[in-house]
Specification:
The protein is of the alpha/beta class and 377 residues long. The chain has 2 domains: 93 residues, Rhodanese-like domain (Oxidized Rhodanese, domain 1); 227 residues, Rossmann fold (3-Layer(aba) Sandwich), CATH 3.40.50. The protein has 15 helices and 13 strands. Strands 8-7-6-9-11-10 form a 6-stranded mixed sheet, with helices on both faces. It has a 5-stranded parallel sheet with strand order 1-5-4-2-3. α6 crosses α7 and α12 packs across α14. The radius of gyration is 23 Å and the shape is globular. About 3% of the residues have low confidence.
Length: 377
């Protein structure tokens, strides 16, 4: 059997026409970024069994760290394919290609001048702030950066908004390190440097704590992260924290609540904290579509992390709703399927949360108190 692994240096020596890069990670991981030119083939074994993989070129498989792709390369070699695993995977490629060269002016110019980015990013960002009264003069906002594409873009949009100075407000770009590995910490710091975002980093032991939770640790992790962010933001003199949830997060949460929890609920654009007096949470990305965020990311060749918890190092499920990533991805795929026959399905889902007809519901909960339609029958 041939060598199962190759390095990035060895990969560079293989002509592009003679090899195929194959990303074997799941869809949730793939959507966060991949090596340019790579094909996404999560069902590799099935395709190999059916003879659907090219047999005339070297197949270079990769996952995040090379742990998943290595046994798959061995399996393909046994089937007669010229297959290898990229040593240390996508993580190795990221380490090599991360650049600290600042691109702040280029990216800010795109937000101001490029029509698509202005109309589909800056315009809905400012519309959400106006519509839901998310900012007031004198606010000091902790822009919470997780390291993903959504929160990094939110930071750039806040910088652009502040540049216009229609009224005074202050920003703190807050990053919590809950126990990231070296690579993910490097990605966050490098992206912040490239984007011209002056981050304030503080550390916590959240990942170590939830490591000891045997089942469904994601909900607890999300709640703990929220509490730490509130506490640190308040200590820095902030009265608001901003999170990067976008339009698609909102509609997925609506549908997941009905399908998996038996209740109708959504992500509110503005929430008062129950445990930190005088603090609010705001979501200024509420009206921005995820595809537009991906377009911004890809336009500038940026690469971001997922949750990166200790469980899989590729987890993207640490969300406040506590629903696993598989359920969120299943819901995302369902909406995508419905869109094929109903192009307005996303807008209908979003509008359903602001057009609730209380005359036609069996019951509802207000301030924690249950109500029935029979009360006014």
């Amino acid at each position: 059997m041939e060598n199962l692994e190759i390095t990035l240096e060895q990969l560079a020596d293989i002509p592009e026409k003679a090899r195929v890069l194959i990303d074997v990670r799941d869809e949730a991981s793939y959507t966060y970024g991949t090596i340019p030119g790579a094909l996404h083939v999560p069902d590799l074994s099935v395709r190999a069994e059916n003879g659907q993989l090219p047999g005339d070129r070297k197949l270079v498989l990769f996952c995040m760290h090379g742990t998943q792709s290595l046994p798959l390369a061995e399996e393909l070699q046994e089937k007669g394919y010229d297959a290898v695993s990229l040593q240390d995977g996508y993580g190795a490629w990221l380490r090599k290609n991360l650049s600290r060269e600042s691109r702040q002016e280029e990216i800010e110019e795109a937000l101001r001048r490029v029509r698509r980015f202005r109309e589909n990013l800056m315009t809905p960002f400012t519309k959400a702030i106006r519509t839901y009264s998310l900012l007031q003069p004198g606010d000091r906002v902790a822009v919470c950066i997780s390291g993903g594409k959504d929160s990094m873009l939110m930071a750039k949009l806040f910088q652009e908004l502040q540049r216009h100075r229609k009224f005074p407000f202050e920003l703190v770009f807050l990053v919590m390190d809950p126990g990231y590995n070296e690579l993910n910490r490097l990605i966050i710091e490098s992206n912040a440097a490239a984007l011209g975002i002056p981050i304030t980093v503080f550390e916590s032991d959240i990942f170590d704590i939830v490591d000891n939770i045997p089942k469904s640790p994601c909900y607890l992790c999300a709640r703990m992260r929220r509490g730490h962010l509130y506490k640190q933001a308040q200590a820095l003199g902030c009265n608001k924290i901003a999170l990067g949830h976008h339009y698609d997060d909102v509609i997925e949460t609506i549908l997941m609540g009905m399908l998996w929890s038996g209740q109708f609920q959504t992500m509110m654009p503005r929430v008062r904290s129950k445990n930190f007096e005088g603090m609010e949470l705001i979501r200024p990305m509420t009206l921005i579509r995820e595809d537009e965020i991906k377009a911004w990311r890809d336009h500038h060749g940026l690469h971001f992390i997922q949750c990166a918890c200790h469980f899989t190092d590729t987890c993207s499920s640490c969300r406040e709703d506590g629903v696993s990533v598989s359920k969120r991805m299943e819901t995302k795929q369902l909406i995508r399927k419905l869109h094929e026959t109903n192009p307005d399905v996303e807008a209908h889902l979003f509008n359903s949360a602001r057009c609730v007809n209380l005359d036609t519901v069996l019951g509802y909960r207000l301030h924690g108190e249950e109500h029935s339609f029979l009360e006014k029958f």
